[in-house]
Specification:
By secondary structure, the chain is α+β, with helices and mostly antiparallel strands. It contains four helices and 13 strands. Bound molecules: calcium ion (4 copies).
Length: 310
């Protein structure tokens, strides 16, 4: 009895510390555990070309690892990830600093998103833009922007995989963001507008993987990080129906007006008018020493009571 309790604690501690740091390779690691968002709608942008099957997250050593299974087409369509991780931010997106707003001018995103409204409860603070295609050779590009940070508040890096659509780069941006892309998914959800096969979505294991230092996101508490992921056209002005959190089926592409029309901007998109939250929470606190200590205390108390009873 006396030896049983310490060994239980040792096993517990080993189990918690054994979770491996994800490998940045575009393949979902086992350590990610359950998905934080699963696709709800078939893709309107092409099966196995543009689809977001599910989202996984893990925080290790002050870095958020984010895995989105699926792919974004090699025609420079944009996979945009907005983060709400600190107080304030933009629930309705402003134009860039050259057009009366406060946003950076990188990639022309802000003036196309100008007027788009996120769901209530989401006010964007940061944006990561991912795209790939062939322009003077195969390439994969990444941007990071501080929403509301002013014209120059961004970083951009082109051809981060060295002449390839796919690969891994652990320091793609100067701020330490790493990215990997594996575009080999040939399963997951199907094309269409109806309800997605969520079991198929959960079975997909390849796609986009990011390593994001929490310092880049304002050093938030892990449970305070919200992500709104969406596949957009190459000019940031025509949204697909691929969001995480997902849209309610049946759902055509969102387009620029929320109903699939091209309008030249996203000003007509109000995500409050589309059912569900088009964002998900990354509720993955780091292994909490406080929780472990509390658990150890509870076990020790039980042991003392049992010892006293004997
Ligand atoms: Ca991986
Ligand atoms: Ca915010
Ligand atoms: Ca598919
Ligand atoms: Ca919504």
């Amino acid at each position: 009895m006396i030896r049983f309790i310490p060994s239980t604690l040792v096993v517990l501690l080993l189990a918690v510390s054994a979770r491996a740091v994800p490998t940045l390779d575009g393949v979902k690691d086992a350590g990610y555990g359950a998905a934080w968002a699963v696709q709800t709608v078939e893709t309107g942008f092409g099966d196995n070309l543009n689809e977001l099957n599910a989202a996984y997250a893990q925080i290790e050593g002050g870095t958020l690892y984010l895995m989105l299974t699926g792919q974004v087409q090699n025609n420079f369509n944009r996979l945009n990830l907005f983060f709400d991780s600190v107080p304030g931010g933009q629930n309705q997106v402003q134009p860039d600093g050259n057009f009366g707003g406060t946003n950076p001018e990188n990639d022309g995103w802000a003036n196309k998103y100008n007027g788009m409204t996120f769901d209530a409860g989401f006010a964007a603070d940061y944006l990561i833009i991912l795209r790939n295609g062939n322009n003077g050779g195969d390439r994969f590009d990444i941007d990071f922007a501080v929403v509301g940070g002013g014209l120059g508040a961004f970083q951009t890096a082109g051809n981060v995989f060295g002449g390839s659509l796919t690969g891994s780069n652990a320091s793609a941006l100067p701020n330490g963001i790493g990215v990997a892309y594996n575009n080999s998914n040939m399963a997951g959800i199907a094309g269409g507008t109806d309800a997605a096969d969520q079991a198929a979505a959960l079975a997909a294991t390849t796609g986009l993987e990011l390593a994001i230092p929490l310092s880049v996101l304002g050093n938030p508490n892990p449970e305070d990080i919200l992500v709104s992921a969406m596949i957009n056209g190459s000019n940031h002005d025509y949204l697909s129906n691929q969001f995480l959190g997902g849209l309610a089926p049946p759902q055509v592409n969102v387009g620029g007006d929320g109903a699939g029309s091209f309008t030249g901007s996203l000003a007509g998109v109000n995500l409050n008018n589309l059912a569900g939250d088009q964002f998900f929470r990354v509720a993955v606190p780091e292994p909490a020493s406080i929780t472990l200590l509390a658990l150890a205390g509870a076990i020790a108390a039980t042991w003392r009571r049992r010892t006293a009873a004997v």
